[in-house]
Structure formats: structure tokens, C-alpha cells
Specification:
about 700 residues, mainly alpha, two-stranded antiparallel ribbon, 21 helices, flat
């Protein structure tokens, strides 16, 4: 703390606590102010060690050691100067720290060591020892207690306000964390949408690039044709210019000959010799003047137009300049377009790089967190047939499909070991052809035998229109084939086989129809589509060689499936063997697309066709659900269902529409009410409608919006 005092020349004035000694006997101090009295300069400084405080042993340490500078205008040889310098020289150079200061510092140091500064409130606790020291200081210095107390109170008020602000900001911090999490979730959702949009835009970009290449080829062809026409036009133009100039020269020669003939006729006429010589002399003089004037004009014309090019050359150069200007404009436009495409490609490249880095990071994260992929080569020694058969079974299949194959192989072995099946009883939930109690022997047929038996069943079932129930007809077929005694055994055996081999096309289709998951019309429709494709391809193959081009395959697919998208037509062509970089003139053995192996497995083309039919049915039913605008648990009446079907498929004829409605509400077509108010009384659940239509042969009969002209 610094204490200041002011004094006059004769008597010093005291301010604060303590006594002020004579300035002549006081030690030198650091000057903080000065006053002038006559010719002498008096200074104002801090109190020194000679004053006493009521608090105990206090001193102004260490001001007496640092304040050694004195500003004075007295002469160095004066008596007063000697007294001042003498008194300074007798001051001790080394002075100990005051005891009260040491006590305060020791107290502060001990309190700080006792504090636990590892907690959140360390700074608040650290201030407490300083507050206590400051309180001691205020209590000991009575004179400055009001000022120091006001200073302390001002700081305490400010600290309290800061604490209140911090408490008010704590909820905002928690809210900020919540908002940050919500924003992160939204960002992830937006990134997923952006990835989907980017994939769509990439496909559109590839299609547009192909279209641009095609247009560029057409443009180059047209430019070459235009250049050829320009060359032929220039040749014709030169030819006509030459003809024109030759004609002008010929006319000039004819005129010259005519003038010469007239001059000769005038010279030979007798009337000329009889004219007056003076008149002839005057005419000669005038002619010579005209000749002189003409010669001067000719010289002037040569001087003025000697460097002028002929009009023909000018027109040719002008035409050449115009052509070059057009080429320059065209090239400039192409250059600007290429620059824009270059900028777009650069932006696309940068975005692709960002996506690549993001995908790479995701790949690294997936590789770090995901479980290792199974080593399917270990199955080679387990599956019967060895590595060759396993490679044949695993060809073109993903991990999920390989699991199904492995389960079928394991199940086939277990099925071979089982000698008897347990009867399922006579409950209503049991299919009619399996209602039996007791043990049923396992006939243990091969997979090929089961497939051949199913083919024979379908052949007999489709040979003529059957009104008998499907499951009853199946059991009757087994009785006719194996006798009443073995029919139940074969029914259980075939049922267990088709339930096990889900990857087999013939077995899976037969199982779906037998268990009521699909109707017979679905299988019949697929057979009709395949037969129609074979018929169309055979009609194109006029030589009956079994070969058609890829372009002919595309034409057949588009004519057979007019409502399929181009992407799905391309998928079918790729399944048939077409490659995007191959030519459309490549030949294809179309009969190989419909061949089945001995176990009933179809080729990739037929599998892709069935998969697309299922996807198109799902899309059709999804459109129907959206058109109804109802939840699955809600009900819909027959009138609203008819209206929704006509809205999504305006090309539906009355017979097909009634068939769809009959299958949706499980009412025979003959018992359906006419259109009108009666239909509103028939109500059915939306989920039931969609399930029943999914089991039936439902497909789009025309575009969503019909052309008004049609």
C-alpha cells in the first residue's frame, strides 16, 4: 500500500496514519509529485520507516531501497545539498521484510496448500484465503477501512453477478447439446437422401452422356456433309464467275468488231470524200481533244484504282471471311460449352472425391466393427459331391443364398436318414392331403424324381380345365399314380421335400400354390409369358437356326412388355447375355434362355423375369394403397376399391376389374353387386385386400394416365 502526504516549507502536514518527520532528516524516496516555493522545489513522497502503525511492526518496505531518485534544483555545493546527501549515505542498504507482511504471506501460503484444487470449485476456494488476508488488512488499517471495504464490496458484487450469469447459462449449455444431437441426426438423414439422389443423378448422367455422344456423332456427320456442300458450292460459284467474265469479254469483242465494221463502211462510203476539208479538220481536232481528255481520265483512273482488287476476288475473299467467321463463332460456342462442362465435371470430381473419402472412412469403420465374412470354401468337404458340386451350387450366389443352399444340403442329409414321418392329425389347420394319424414311411426319392413328379402333376392339371380343389386334386393324383395305400406316404414325402428345397424354382412355386400363398393363375400366367416370348423369338428366327440378334431380343421384349421401364428391359437383356459395350448385332441362342436343368432350376433370364413380375405386382399394390389413402387396419368398401383400381389403371376392362374385386373381397364374380350404392355395404379390411390381391395374378393393364386421343 502507498500512503501520500503533502506539506509546506515551514511545517509538514500529516495525512493518513503515522507521523511525518522533518524532510531534511528523512531518507530519500521516490518522488510522486512536486511543488514550487520561490526558487526552491519541494517534493511529495511515500512515508518511510520512521512512522509507526497501530497494527504492530509495519514499515514501508521495500520503498526505501527503490526510491533513491531526487529531483531538486539546488546547487550541488550548497549546505542543504550536503545535508541531504549525507543523510542518504547513512541509510542501511539491506533491510529485512516486515514481520506483519511475512505473517500474512505465510498464512496465505498455508491456506492455499490446504485447498483441494482438483474440483470444479477450485477457483472459488482459492479466492477465500485472499479474502481473509484482505479482511485482516482492512481491519488493521483503520484509516483506509472505508475505502478498502468499498473496493472489496464492489468486487464481491461483480463476482456475484458473474455467478448468476453462469448459472443462467447452464440450461443453455444442456439445450445446446440437445440441439447438436438433433442437428447431427438431421445431417445423417440428409446425407442418406443425398446418397440416394446422387445414385439417381449418376444414372441420369450416364444416360445423358450416351445421348450427348450420339448427338455429337450426328453433329460431326452433318458438319462433314455441310463442308462437302460448301466446297461444291464454291466450285460452282467460281465456274459461274468465269462464265460471266468470259461472256463480258465476248460481248466487248463483238462490240469492237461491230465498231470496226462501221468505221470501215464509213471510210469506204463515197459521201465521206465529198465533205468539206475544214469540217474534217475541225472534227479531227475535236477528236484529238476527246482522245487527250480520255487519256487523262484513264491515267487518273489507273492512279486512283491501280491497287484495287477485282470485284470477283473481293467477293471470294468476303465469302471466305464469312465462312471463317461462322467457324470461329461455332468454335467459340463449342469452347464455352466445353468450359462449362469442364467446370461441371470439376465440381462433380470434387464431390466424388469427397464421397470417396467418406465412403472410404465408412468402409474402414465397417471393416473395423463388422464381423469377418465366412470362408465358404470350408463347405467343400462337407457337401456331398466335393468341391466341384459346391462350386456349381455356389456360383453367382450371395452369402444369404449360400446359407439357404447349405441348409438345404444339411436338411437333405437329415431327410435321407429319416425313415418315418409323424402324422399331423385331423385338425382343421392341417392341409387336407396331410390329415393322418400315426407313422408314415419316407419314400426317399431323389430331388430329380420329385421335380419330375411335380412336372407330371402340372401337365395333368393344365391339360384340361379342372374345377376340383388344388390340394384334393393333388392327393387324387397321388392315388392314381401310386395307389391308395402309398398315396399318403408320397404326400408327406413330397411335402417335406418341397418345404425343404426353397431355392428350387419348381418346388418353391408348387409349395406356394399348394399352401395357398399363391393362386394357380400366377403359375399359369408365368408359363404363358414364357410361351409367348418363345413364340415371338421363333417367329423372328425365320431360318429356324435358334439364333437372334440382341436388337431383335430388345424388340421382342418391348413388344411383349410395353409397360416395362427401359431399365428393366436392359436388366433382362443383361441376364440374357448382352453387355453394354457389345454390339446389338451379336447373335444369341434364345432357346438356351428357357432351358431347365434336371433338378428344375431355370436360367438367369427366367429368374430375372419372375423377379420383375413380383416387383411390378408389389409396386401396383403400393399404388393402390396410396390411392386408397387408408391405414392397413382400416376398412374400405367395394365402391371405393373399384374407384381406386380404375384411377391407378384406367385401361382395366370390366371383366378383369370384377375378377380383381372378387379375389380382393372373396366373393364370386357372379355374386358381385352392380356399381352403385349397394357396393358401399360390402366392407373389408385394407390389409386383407392387399394380401388377397398379392396371392392372385394382378398386373397393370395400361399406363397410369391414358392419352386423351386413345
Amino acid at each position: 500500500m502507498c500512503f501520500f502526504a503533502t506539506w509546506s516549507y515551514s511545517q509538514p502536514a500529516l495525512t493518513g496514519v503515522g507521523a511525518w518527520h522533518n524532510s531534511d532528516s528523512a531518507p530519500a524516496a521516490r518522488l510522486l509529485g512536486a511543488g514550487r516555493h520561490g526558487d526552491e522545489l519541494y517534493t511529495t513522497s511515500a512515508f518511510w520507516a520512521s512512522y509507526q502503525f497501530s497494527a504492530g511492526d509495519l514499515s514501508p518496505w521495500p520503498t526505501h531501497t527503490s526510491g533513491q531518485t531526487i529531483l531538486c534544483n539546488r546547487k550541488p555545493c550548497s549546505e542543504d545539498y550536503r545535508k541531504r546527501t549525507g543523510s542518504w549515505q547513512h541509510q542501511p542498504l539491506n533491510t529485512a521484510k516486515p514481520r506483519y507482511l511475512e505473517q500474512l504471506e505465510n498464512y496465505l501460503r498455508k491456506e492455499l496448500l490446504l485447498l483441494d484444487l482438483g474440483k470444479d470449485s477450485a477457483q472459488e476456494l482459492r479466492l477465500q484465503p485472499y479474502r481473509e488476508v484482505f479482511e485482516f488488512f482492512i481491519e488493521d488499517f483503520k484509516t483506509y477501512k472505508p475505502l478498502l471495504s468499498s473496493i472489496k464490496n464492489a468486487y464481491e458484487v461483480m463476482l456475484a453477478q458473474q455467478r448468476e450469469k453462469i448459472r443462467a447459462l447452464e440450461p443453455l449449455k444442456a439445450k445446446l447439446v440437445t440441439v447438436n444431437e438433433d442437428c447431427n441426426e438431421r445431417i445423417l438423414a440428409m446425407r442418406a437422401e443425398e446418397r440416394y439422389e446422387i445414385s439417381i443423378l449418376k444414372r441420369e448422367k450416364m444416360n445423358l452422356l450416351k445421348l450427348i455422344d450420339k448427338k455429337n456423332e450426328e453433329k460431326l456427320a452433318l458438319q462433314s456433309e455441310v463442308s462437302k456442300l460448301r466446297k461444291s458450292l464454291a466450285q460452282e460459284y467460281l465456274h459461274y464467275l468465269t462464265e460471266r467474265d468470259a461472256r463480258k469479254i465476248l460481248i466487248a469483242d463483238l462490240n469492237e468488231l461491230r465498231y470496226q465494221r462501221e468505221d470501215m463502211s464509213l471510210a469506204q462510203s463515197p459521201s465521206v470524200w465529198g465533205e468539206d476539208p475544214m469540217k474534217l479538220t475541225l472534227a479531227l481536232k475535236m477528236t484529238r481533244q476527246d482522245l487527250t481528255r480520255t487519256q487523262m481520265e484513264l491515267n487518273t483512273m489507273k492512279a486512283n484504282f491501280g491497287d484495287v482488287v477485282p470485284r470477283r476476288d473481293f467477293e471470294m475473299q468476303e465469302k471466305t471471311n464469312k465462312d471463317l467467321q461462322e467457324q470461329l463463332d461455332s468454335l467459340r460456342a463449342d469452347y464455352e460449352e466445353v468450359c462449362k462442362e469442364h467446370e461441371i465435371l470439376l465440381q462433380l470430381h470434387m464431390s466424388t472425391l469427397k464421397e470417396r473419402d467418406q465412403f472410404y472412412a465408412e468402409l474402414q469403420e465397417i471393416q473395423r466393427t463388422s464381423t469377418p465374412r465366412p470362408d465358404w470354401t470350408k463347405c467343400e468337404g462337407v457337401v456331398s459331391g466335393g468341391p466341384e458340386r459346391w462350386l456349381m451350387l455356389a456360383e453367382g450366389k450371395n452369402s444369404d443364398e449360400l446359407v439357404d443352399v447349405l441348409l438345404e444340403e444339411i436338411g437333405e442329409g437329415l431327410l435321407r436318414e429319416k425313415d418315418f414321418f409323424s402324422g399331423l392329425g385331423y385338425e382343421e389347420s392341417t392341409p387336407p392331403f396331410l390329415r393322418f394319424e400315426g407313422s408314415v414311411p419316407n419314400m426317399k426319392p431323389t430331388k430329380k424324381a420329385v421335380v419330375d413328379l411335380i412336372k407330371e402333376f402340372w401337365k395333368e392339371r393344365l391339360s384340361e380345365e379342372q374345377k376340383e380343389n388344388f390340394s384334393d386334386f393333388f392327393f387324387n393324383f397321388l392315388e392314381r399314380r401310386f395307389g391308395p395305400g402309398d398315396a399318403m406316404a408320397w404326400a408327406y414325402t413330397i411335402f417335406e421335400n418341397i418345404k425343404l428345397f426353397r431355392t428350387n424354382d419348381i418346388m418353391s412355386q408348387f409349395y406356394a400354390v399348394l399352401m395357398g400363398k399363391n393362386r394357380e393363375s400366377v403359375y399359369v400366367r408365368q408359363k404363358e409369358i414364357i410361351a409367348q416370348l418363345v413364340k415371338e423369338m421363333s417367329s423372328i428366327d425365320s431360318q429356324n437356326e435358334g439364333l437372334i440378334t440382341m436388337e431383335q431380343l430388345s424388340t421382342v421384349l418391348k413388344s411383349t412388355f410395353p409397360f416395362k421401364k427401359d431399365e428393366r428391359i436392359q436388366e433382362l437383356m443383361e441376364a440374357g447375355g448382352w453387355q453394354p459395350d457389345s454390339s446389338n448385332t451379336d447373335l444369341l441362342q434364345y432357346r438356351s434362355l428357357f432351358v431347365e436343368d434336371e433338378e428344375g432350376q431355370s436360367m438367369l433370364f427366367v429368374k430375372k423375369l419372375r423377379e420383375q413380375c413380383l416387383n411390378e405386382k408389389d409396386e401396383y399394390l403400393h399404388e393402390l394403397k396410396q390411392e386408397l389413402g387408408l391405414e392397413l387396419r382400416e376398412d374400405v368398401n367395394l365402391f371405393r376399391l373399384r374407384e381406386a383400381l380404375m384411377n391407378i389403371d384406367p385401361s382395366l376392362d370390366k371383366q378383369t376389374l370384377n375378377s380383381y374385386l372378387s379375389q380382393a373381397v372373396q366373393i364370386p364374380v357372379t355374386e358381385l353387386p352392380e356399381e352403385g350404392e349397394k357396393e358401399k355395404g360390402i366392407v373389408v379390411n385394407v390389409k386383407t385386400v392387399l394380401e388377397q390381391l398379392h396371392m392372385a395374378d394382378v398386373r397393370r393393364m395400361g399406363p397410369r394416365e391414358q392419352d386423351p386421343a386413345s
